[in-house]
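README: folding subset

This subset contains proteins for which both the sequence and a predicted structure token string are available. Records are stored as plain text. Below is the entry for CopG family transcriptional regulator (141 residues), shown exactly as it appears on disk.
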Amino acid sequence: MTNKAHLSVVKPKGGDTEKITINLGPVDLGKIDLLVAEGFYSNRTDLIRTAIRNQLVVHAQAIQETVVRRELVLGLHHFSKQDLEAILKAKEQLAIQVLGLASIASDVSPDLAAATVASVEVLGVFHASPAVKAALAGRIR
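--- output ---
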């Protein structure tokens, strides 16, 4: 039997962010710098975050429909050693499907992860030890 991910929920800490890198042409970068210089934004990052948030609002309905259709769990989900041991004891497996952040505790062994996690689909960020990620490599989409 495969369960959807719905175990421990962790609240984000202030400032929890992931770094991304983008390449822009000199004209677009110049336009951003002009808007910053004119006081529309405090810095380049402020403009880029605002633009991304605005696009997420524009596409909010499509995002929500996709979350529902694909049965994704929205938010931040942490799987502790105790969570996975309970899944193992119940002779079940998890299908981790998260839009946001999914993490597996650092004290989870690769064997425990392999025995309890059927699949991992994370749209966002997946944190686990390198050994656990290696054990689940064929199951991560």
